[in-house]
Amino acid sequence: MSSSEPISIHQLSAKDMTLMEDLLTTFGEAFDEVDTYSSSRPSTAYLKRLLSSDYFIALAALKNGLVVGGIAAYELQKFEQERSEIYIYDLAVAAAHRREGIATALIQELKKIAVARAAYVIYVQADIEDNPAIALYSKLGVREDVLHFDIAVAVNDDDG
Q1: Which of 53, 104, 119, 150 registers the highest number of CB atoms within 10 A of its CB?
Q2: Burial 72-98 (b: 16+ CB within 10 A, else e)
Q3: 3-state percent breakdown (helix, strand, coil) of the chain, nearest 5
Q4: pLDDT digits (tens, 9 = 90+) for 56-114
């Protein structure tokens, strides 16, 4: 496929289960984490609930009806003011379709959704070694250097 083929951005709803499955496959392949995105996929009922929620946003970039990229994002309602912010959890474009403006088009569509929801900012994290992501996000936003910490959650904690 060539970059001259038109791209369309589609916001997924609970009716778009095939596109959601294709989006999960695209994320797995793009991130080289096929097992993470395929081995224990959520049930159809779970994905429908997620796509029906008012806090999850899934966008798929389509070329000739095929998913070639996408965004999974969350709207976070703030407590200190009546406003929200949107966190891009995943953004990926299939390797064969990179450098075609698809990631930028996805973010531009997410910005429209953010405006409609009165969100005041969209934010995203990038791994230090992910130079293409850093270049993209630097072009579109202001960089903040922060530290990220994962805090383990004990599922069966008997201390209590």
Answers
A1: 119
A2: bbebeeeeeeeebbbebebbbbbeebb
A3: 35, 25, 40
A4: 999 999 999 999 999 999 999 999 998 999 999 999 999 999 999 999 999 999 999 99
Please say if the pLDDT value at position 159 is more than 70: no
Residue type, 131: N
Q: Which two tokens stand for residue 115?
A: 């405006």
Tokens of 144: 């903040």
Give the strand pairing for 84-93 and 56-63.
Answer: unpaired
Beta carbons within 8 Å of 56's beta carbon, 6+ residues apart:
50, 72, 73, 74, 75
Spatial separation of the C-alpha atoms in residues 110 and 12, rounded to whole Å? 12
Among the listed residues 106, 41, 42, 38, the one whose alpha carbon sits nearest the alpha carbon of residue 73: 106
